[in-house]
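Retro notes (design track)

What went well: tokenization of the new backbones is finally stable.
What didn't: we kept losing track of which sequence belonged to which structure.
Fix going forward: every design gets posted as structure first, then sequence, in one message. First example under the new rule, 517 residues:
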């Protein structure tokens, strides 16, 4: 074939051969390591889940059943958690995901061996004793820690070690929530911040292995049993509006969480061994009136979808759901913000369900002829809170559909999650923690307003700055003109007067004689 007709790029002969060779090397290296990451994440998810159940049986089934008031359960758990984290692994404070992100960006993916052990103990006690926190942060940190240790044993380069850490976190998420696609997207969208084909293959394979391990041990039952979920195209504008509401709610949730952290820092009691103990008193006090907001909360979400919540409250459901939304935000903020070990995903799901239910009841009241009930809006609401706070609209869309085994609402989930992502504001609930951990201030001074007002404010500031710049340039030009007219400007260089013709000729003769001599 003539050279001018040779294909270019990947499909040219040499380039394609090189690509095949690189791909073979890639999978030859990553085949066994992905299997290790997937199995570690899956087994870690199962073990962590069983440990939470064991702690719940101890605190709820033994202490609570024998007369210990519910207000004391989170306090007793915090007395165990605080000293363990303070003495053995400071990385176990709070969420778990920001610490993985920090390890990826600051330490090349290296995580200490003890982190997984401390995190799994501290988080299981926090959640099992009634703390309002989730499983996603701890299991992501556990899977990432195990994968990091294995990768360091194999002396992987920094790029490969980072991929293995993200793969372990993805496998853990996939195993604990039985969501293989959502788990893969977690590693890419949350931890990595971008989606690339090679990374997607790594995350997907590890996530699938973690899912298989979890299902083989725990069974294929879904996390949520949402019934009577119907999607109608005519309701799409309402779902979009729910995305707007969810974006502002995500903004409030994120700032509320770090507002509690700032409160503890102001009184210089942040990250002390007794910090979770102080926050647990607030958690237990709220739980005394709203016990549904304690512990993991999945049981109550399933009861909500089954319609049992309506039987517990004889007044207005809107007021009841609103109180639960605010109470869950308070218990979660004080559990995690005070230093308790746990994630933010499960609280986001609970708050989103309550917010969606309130919105759905409003739609049902205004448009009874086309409404499909508040359960459908509640399921979409579960995605919008996390999409706005974690800046992960794609992962939020898929993982809620996988956890409920309900894919009929995918268009509504996707639209509402993207809108919430746009409205909520710059920066994620995870990235803020990373910046605080490494001692950086949040750089964007407009973070005090949600995204859309912030964009308007930035546009106003830009226009105002442009006008000031034009005005200063005009004033400078007028000043230069005035200085030139009054002679107050810089002094002109002295000019040499013209010589008469005879003097010019004599000067030239003298210069010629000097050259000749």
């Amino acid at each position: 074939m003539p050279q001018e007709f040779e294909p270019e790029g990947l499909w040219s002969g040499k380039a394609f051969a090189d690509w095949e060779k690189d791909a073979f090397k890639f999978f030859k290296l990553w085949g066994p390591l992905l299997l290790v990451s997937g199995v570690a994440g899956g087994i870690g998810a199962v073990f962590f889940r069983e440990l939470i159940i064991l702690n719940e049986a101890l605190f709820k089934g033994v202490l609570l059943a024998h007369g210990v008031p519910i207000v004391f359960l989170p306090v007793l758990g915090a007395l165990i958690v605080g000293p363990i984290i303070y003495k053995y692994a400071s990385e176990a404070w709070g969420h778990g995901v920001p610490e993985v992100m920090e390890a990826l960006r600051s330490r090349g993916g290296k995580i200490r061996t003890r982190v997984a052990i401390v995190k799994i103990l501290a988080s299981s006690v926090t959640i099992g004793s009634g703390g309002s926190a989730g499983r996603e942060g701890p299991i992501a940190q556990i899977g990432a820690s195990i994968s990091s240790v294995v990768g360091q044993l194999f002396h992987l380069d920094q790029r490969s070690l980072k991929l293995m850490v993200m793969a372990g976190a993805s496998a853990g998420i996939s195993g604990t929530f039985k969501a293989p696609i959502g788990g893969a997207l977690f590693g890419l969208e949350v931890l990595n911040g971008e989606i690339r084909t090679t990374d997607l293959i790594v995350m997907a394979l590890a996530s699938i292995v973690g899912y298989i391990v979890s299902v083989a041990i725990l069974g294929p039952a879904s996390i949520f049993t949402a019934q009577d979920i119907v999607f109608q195209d005519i309701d799409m504008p309402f779902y979009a509006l729910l995305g707007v509401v969810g974006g502002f709610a995500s903004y409030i949730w994120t700032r509320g969480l770090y507002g509690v952290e700032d409160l503890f820092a102001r009184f210089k009691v942040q990250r002390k061994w007794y910090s979770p103990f102080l926050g647990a008193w607030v958690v237990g006090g709220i739980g005394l009136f709203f016990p549904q907001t304690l512990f993991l909360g999945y049981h109550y979400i399933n009861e909500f979808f089954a319609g049992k919540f309506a039987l517990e409250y004889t007044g207005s459901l809107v007021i009841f759901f609103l109180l639960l939304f605010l109470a869950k935000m308070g218990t979660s903020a004080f559990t995690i913000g005070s230093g308790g070990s746990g994630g933010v995903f499960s609280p986001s799901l609970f708050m989103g369900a309550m917010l969606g239910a309130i919105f759905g009841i409003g739609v049902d009241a205004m448009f009874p002829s086309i409404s499909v009930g508040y359960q459908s809006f509640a399921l979409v609401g579960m995605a919008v809170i996390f999409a706005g706070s974690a800046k992960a609209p794609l992962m939020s869309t898929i993982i809620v559909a996988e956890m409920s085994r309900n894919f009929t609402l995918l268009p509504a989930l996707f639209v509402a999650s993207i809108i919430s992502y746009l409205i909520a504001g710059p920066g994620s609930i995870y990235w803020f923690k990373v910046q605080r951990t490494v001692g950086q201030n949040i750089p964007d001074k407009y973070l005090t307003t949600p995204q859309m007002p912030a964009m308007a404010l930035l546009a106003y500031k830009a226009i105002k700055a442009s006008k000031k710049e034009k005005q200063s340039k005009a004033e400078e030009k007028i000043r230069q003109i005035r200085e030139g007219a009054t002679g107050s400007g810089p002094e002109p260089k002295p000019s040499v007067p013209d010589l008469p013709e005879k003097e010019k000729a004599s000067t030239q003769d003298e210069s010629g004689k000097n050259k000749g001599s």
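Added context from the reviewer: Residues 13-64 form the longest helix (52 residues).
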